[in-house]
Amino acid sequence: MSSRDVILGRVRRALGGPPGAPTTYDTDIDRDYLHEHGDRTTTQTVELLAVNLADYRANVHRCTAGELAATVARLLAEHGSRSVAIPGGLHEEWLAQTGLTRVADDAQSTPAALDQVDSVVTACAVAIAETGTIVLDGSPDQGRRRITLILDHHICVVRVPDQVVSSVPQALERLDPTRPLTWISGPSATSDIELDRVEGVHGPRTLEVILLSG
To answer: pTM to 2 decimals?
Structure first.
């Protein structure tokens, strides 16, 4: 028996479960926990997402499908962007009203080269209202993880209500654990021992979330 098996066995016993390894994680692991806190309507769930995103210092915007291209162009202009990274599967019409230099999500791009790009625009896999979290899974409209970690300005489009769930358990039911998942709760930030907050250390300094309806 390995040290890992010993530790996990102790954890299972502490939780009141069987000491041995489960035969199958689908049937032998107790999942009798709340899948949602409270009873909210769809509209209330979307509003909770907006509130928690803002609480994490993300900039929240709302628009319809017909307004999306103009909204993206405005946010890029307000940021002073001259170039924008785009995943290969991003909808072309999202950038229809901007004439910026477009940088493709290329596997050969170096971190130094990406650091010179001003912004990135992506879709998302799911958004979690209770935690104000956006999850990317590397799908064609989201691109490689590094384009959302190196660049300083990230515009992320969330389709509401289709891509919004209440809780983490509900999000996990939609996600494929074999994909490269990136969980984003506001712009990247850290604090030193004196609790001085510094943003942009491990990812974008500015996160813009567009809640797209219609």
So the answer is: 0.84
